[in-house]
Design brief:
It is a single chain. By secondary structure, this protein is of the alpha+beta class. The protein has three helices and two strands. The protein has helices at 2-14, 32-37, 60-73, and strands at residues 20-23, 26-30. The protein has a two-stranded antiparallel ribbon. β1 and β2 form a beta hairpin. The longest helix is centred in the C-terminal third of the chain and has 14 residues, at 60-73. The radius of gyration is 14 Å and the shape is globular.
Length: 77
């Protein structure tokens, strides 16, 4: 199992696409591509910040609806 987790972690870390994970609307993980995309220097600069902080205000309601839907259906968005 450890080997699979290590492969997955490497895949996520090296992915060219931004990957972020949140809990209750606050960032708990992102890969290097997401750190760059969000204009931060390090992951520590982002941890715990609300996801809506990275979303244009005109899209806040859409983002909230997607978060709710993902939580209700336990799916990634």
């Amino acid at each position: 199992m450890i080997e699979h987790e290590e492969r997955y972690r490497t895949l996520v870390e090296l992915a060219p696409d931004a990957i972020a994970v949140h809990r209750d609307g606050r960032l708990v993980f992102s890969n290097a591509a997401a750190v760059r995309m969000l204009g931060a220097q390090t992951l520590d600069d982002l941890l715990g910040r609300p996801l809506l902080q990275f979303t244009a205000p005109s899209y806040h309601e859409v983002a909230r609806a997607r978060f709710r839907d993902a939580m209700e259906h336990h799916t990634a968005q």
